[in-house]
Design brief:
By secondary structure, the chain is of the alpha/beta class. The chain has a single domain, classed as Phosphoglycerate mutase-like (Rossmann fold, 3-Layer(aba) Sandwich), CATH 3.40.50.
């Protein structure tokens, strides 16, 4: 059985205000740094065998305390990079609320896409190909992956066989861990959106 500890990066100052996507220069807030430290403490007992991170700085900043505590290198993986939000990248949610394409995106995630961006189907396809590839190659692995809400959400929804249009039913908060087990092509959710800050 391969265990995946799917970590959403810690909080930053633009959470819930701006569609950050792959916008450069977004770093963790002090709250986010504390979340990262708590995640590292929690994962210390989980016998992690590999640590991966999205290329985004906020994910790598979250991964650094984990790497230090677990004495593991950080493997940067584009397969768990943030959704490419296209021309919406860096836009305040308040401004997007008047865009009919934004309305469509939030009601039909299974078929809509951000302008010049990536669909949820494409995101889910790359994320699941990645985790399934790891599960096949390392059937006893215990992998920590620091990524983003949409990436983790699509993996969870695939395991639960939920349609992407129901994305709003799965919460993935900053600084949380969701754990997935994969064995012989079968997958199960062990925990979801687990907060580690005491």
């Amino acid at each position: 059985m391969t265990m995946f500890f799917l970590v959403r990066h810690g909080a930053h100052g633009l959470v819930d205000r701006v569609l950050v996507g792959r916008m450069p220069g977004v770093s963790l807030s002090e709250e986010g740094r504390e979340q990262a430290r708590c995640i590292a403490l929690m994962l210390f007992s989980k016998r992690i065998t590999a640590l991966q991170s999205s290329p985004q700085p906020r994910a790598q900043e979250t991964a650094h305390p984990i790497a230090e505590r677990l004495s593991l290198p950080i493997e940067i993986s584009s397969a768990i990079d943030e959704l490419d939000a296209g021309t919406w990248t860096g836009q305040p949610f308040a401004a997007l609320s008047n865009d009919p394409l934004w309305t469509a995106w939030n009601s039909a995630r299974g078929s809509a896409r951000p302008p010049q961006g990536e669909s949820m189907v494409e995101l889910q396809t790359r994320a699941m190909a990645h985790v399934n590839g790891i599960a096949s190659a390392t059937p006893e692995g215990r992998i920590a992956m620091v990524s983003h809400a949409e990436v983790i959400r699509t993996i969870v929804m695939n395991v639960l066989r939920m349609p992407l249009d129901e994305f709003h039913r799965i919460e993935i908060a900053p600084g949380t861990i969701s754990t997935v087990a994969i064995e012989a092509g079968n997958a199960a959710i062990v925990s979801l959106n687990q907060s580690v800050v005491t």
